[in-house]
C-alpha cells in the first residue's frame, strides 16, 4: 500500500484587520510531490509584517517561491539530498522575486517583509525551514509527544521578528531529522499563544490532539476540503477571535 498524506488548511483574517479595513496578511499553501522513493509532503505559511505596506503580496510571493523551489529540487533529487546550502539558494530566489516586484512598483523590499515557516516530510527525512515567528509542531510514529523542532523567533522588542527580506540576510533556522513524522501542524503567529506553552517551550498537546482527530478519522486522500472549511470556521469563531485579533493560518497533516 502506498504511504501518502491527508491534510487540511485554512487562514482567517484577524479582527484587528477587519476594524482597520486591511487585507489578511497571512498566506498558506500545501503540496504533495511524488518521487520514486515515496511521497513528499510540503507545507508553508508566511505572515506579512504589519508595518509592511504590501505585506499580503510579500507573504504570497514567499510561499509560492518556496514551493516552486521545492518542486524544481524534487524533480531532480530526493529530499534526503537537501542541505542548508540549497535552502539558502531557495531564499535567494524568493528575495530576488520580491526585489523584482518592489522595483516594478518603485518600492523597497522591506515593503513586502514576511516570515517563513515550512515543513518537508518524506518517507525517511523531515525538515523544518523557519524564519521569524509562527512554528511547526510534529509527532513521530508511535509517540504521543508533540515536539516543537524550531521555536518562534521574537526580537528584543515587542512584536518584532525576522523576515525573509532582512538585509543583508535573514536569520534562518534549518532543522533536519533523518526520521519520518506521523503528523504535523503548521501555523502563523496569530495562534502561537493559544497552542504553545511559553514557559516550558512546548506544544499544548490537547489542542493538537483535538484538531488532528477529525483528520485521522477521515477517509479522504490528499486535501480534505470539508475539513478545511470546518477549520476556517473554527479560526473565524468567537472562541478564537476573543483570544487573538491577528490573522491566523493553520495547516494540519496526517500520514496515511
How would you sum up this structure in a few lines?
By secondary structure, this protein is α+β, with helices and mostly antiparallel strands.
Number of domains: 1
| End-to-end distance | 10 Å
* Residues in helices, as a percent range: 25-40%
E-strand count: 12
**In CATH's first tier, which class applies?**
Alpha Beta
Determine the structural class based on helices, strands and strand pairing: alpha+beta
Number of continuous helical runs: 7
The CATH topology comes to Phosphatase 2c, domain 1
**How much is the radius of gyration in Å?**
17 Å
Mean pLDDT: 96
Shape: globular
Shape-level CATH architecture: 4-Layer Sandwich
Reading the helices and strands in chain order gives: EHEEHHEEEEEHEEHEHHE
Largest sheet: 5 strands, mixed
CATH superfamily: PPM-type phosphatase domain
The proportion of strand residues reads 25-35%
- Low-confidence regions: none
Q: In which order are the strands of the major sheet placed?
A: 6-8-12-1-11
